[in-house]
Amino acid sequence: MLCYIVLAAGQSKRFRSRAPKILFQIHGKSLLDYVLESIPANKKDIFIVSNIPYKDYVCIPQAEPLGTGHAVQEALKHIPSTYTDCIILCGDVPLITKETLRNLSQSTFDLTLIGFRIDDLTKSYGRIIGNGEKIVEYKEASEEVKNNPHAYSGTMKVRRHILDATLPLLRAHPEFYVTEIVEKTNAQRGVIFKTEEEFTGVNTKADLAYVERALQKKWIHQLMEEGVVFYNPDTSSVYHDTKIEQDVIIHPHVHIGKNVVIEEGVVIYPFTCLEDCYIKKGARVGPFAHIRGYVVLENNAIVGNFVEVKKSKIGAESKVKHLSYIGDAVLGENVNVGAGVITCNYDGVKKHQTTIEDYVFVGSNTALIAPLTIHDHAYIGAGSVITDDVESYDLVFTRAEKTTKKGWTKKRVQRQLL
Fold first, then answer.
1. How far, in Å, CA of 309 to CA of 297, rounded?
2. pTM of the predicted protein model
3. What does each C-alpha distance from 366 to 106, 129, 318, 363 come to in angstroms?
4. CATH match for 2-205 among 3.90.550.10, 2.40.50.580, 3.40.50.200, 3.40.630.30
5. How far is CA 223 from CA 197, 216, 233, 245, in A?
6. Residue of 12, 67, 143, 358 with fewest CB within 10 Å of its CB?
7. pLDDT tens-place string over residues 337-393
8. Given 240, 255, 322, 377, which residue is catalytic?
9. Same fold, 2-205 and 229-396
10. Is 322 a known active-site residue?
11. What is the DSSP letter of 23?
């Protein structure tokens, strides 16, 4: 039987954060989540060396930070002897793939290392000597060894009996390196070479930014393969759970957050932010729009420039095109909302709903004081403050009478000249 030992108890000093590094999130998932989801095994076969509990996984504490060799020793005390093979990997490599770990799990060697070739020889990876005869940690490597481009990824598969025999032989440097077991066994061994990017460890905030961008490229490339158009993919971002159908057009500088579904034929214009929303066929959003908090845009709805929609439904063919806030509202079909319209949904204590039925016209610069219902085919004149329900087919407007003071400005200017 095969188990996975995930090393996640490091102190993460270079990451410079009060929170544990492995819990730091990229688009809603922790670094550790990405690693765990890449493991092709059941949870019961995964053992995490960590000083904090994590979900319903088996977590094994490492009370003293004595290195990777000591961490594996601690783990083996809690891993049943029925597991005859172990894959050891790090908990801070979120780009590792399930395919790589599946390939490693199928290796028949007694000891199999994963390595990669580096172009920058100053990078502080351990170096693989020969065909896996030895791994030399960078801080202990000679100049000749540092010039070796074959780097160790931090991931290996090894027979349990080899660990049992070699771990007690490790030396303190002052830490105990699990890599030292390689030179202490004559077991049959092999090396699988992958890419450096896949094993990028997140040790600093700069590493975090690099990994986030790599994940973005991966997700966006997959969406483009499925038929989505990104006019400038390097300027946009998506979430790990983003769902976009074919023939959707995403303009530059669009941010897509969690829980977003976009149906075919939708166009998202530049500088738009989407989160918790379902955008249906043919809708248009942006530019400079903000959609958040469980929003549904029905077929061919339009949300335009500098419009924020929160926790609302915009009906089919309805338009909110300029400078408006629609919050806690339900709009029916073919509603036209003018520029500067606000649903005043908060009374200082509670949120209230505005309902606008089909074929309603709301004039510009109108404030709708919720709770409120505007029934179908009603018209609201521009500049109104609506506090009561409006019946079907009614025209409603609230305006003060115009007051004119003749010559008022002229007298004021004369006083200023004196």
1. 10
2. 0.87
3. 67, 74, 17, 6
4. 3.90.550.10
5. 21, 11, 11, 8
6. 143
7. 999 999 999 999 999 999 999 999 999 999 999 999 999 999 999 999 999 999 999
8. 322
9. no
10. yes
11. G
